[in-house]
Amino acid sequence: MLSFRVGPIAYPVGTGAFLGSFFDTVTVRLEDGQRGRVFPLLARLYESGGLDAGDAPRARAELNEAATLLQHLPASEVVWDAEHPDRVPPWGDQIAETILTARDYHVTTDGRSLIGVFDEALATSATTAQPLRIR
């Protein structure tokens, strides 16, 4: 189980495949398949597993922009695997009725919006001057 970590604070996320799906959706649907073309700090975090605290405010702005764009895509546009965009999640299309858009799709293991948790972790990183790590 992965978490966003800022110092001793952990923000539970879910499996690696689940978190990868969020980043793959951003890459395929918002960056024309070129990871980091539009959202370089989000891509750096995903690829390296960490982000310096000084980059957190700009990463929050990128996340906010991505969230706004994902709000305009139906949940059916979520990408489970960027290398195989037609691959469906293990649960297929059996999702909660409240999930209407690609922004709503990713929910953490404790039932919170992944985007909200991600934003909170970035805010903590900026405030505490500690890097954000995916662990």
**How many β-strand runs?**
4
Spatial arrangement of strands, main beta sheet: 2-1-4-3
Radius of gyration: 14 Å
The biggest sheet, with number of strands, parallel, antiparallel or mixed sense and barrel status, is: 4 strands, antiparallel
Low-confidence stretches: none
Strand share of the residues? 5-15%
Overall 3D form: globular
Helicity level: 40-55%
Number of helices: 5
- Oligomeric state as shown: single chain
Structural class: alpha+beta
Q: Kindly give the count of domains.
A: 1
Architecture overview:
This protein has 135 residues and is an alpha+beta fold. The protein has one domain (2-134). Helices cover 43% and strands 12% of the residues. A 4-stranded antiparallel sheet has the order 2-1-4-3. The longest helix is centred in the N-terminal third of the chain and has 15 residues, at 16-30. The chain is globular.
Main attributes of the structure:
globular; 135 residues; alpha+beta; four-stranded antiparallel sheet
Question: How would you sum up this structure in a few lines?
Answer:
This protein is of the alpha+beta class and 135 residues long. It has one domain (2-134).
Topology:
Layout lengths: L1 E5 L2 E6 L1 H15 L9 H9 L1 E2 L4 H15 L31 H4 L8 H15 L3 E3 L1
Antiparallel strand pairs: 1-2, 1-4, 3-4
Helix pairs in contact: 3-5
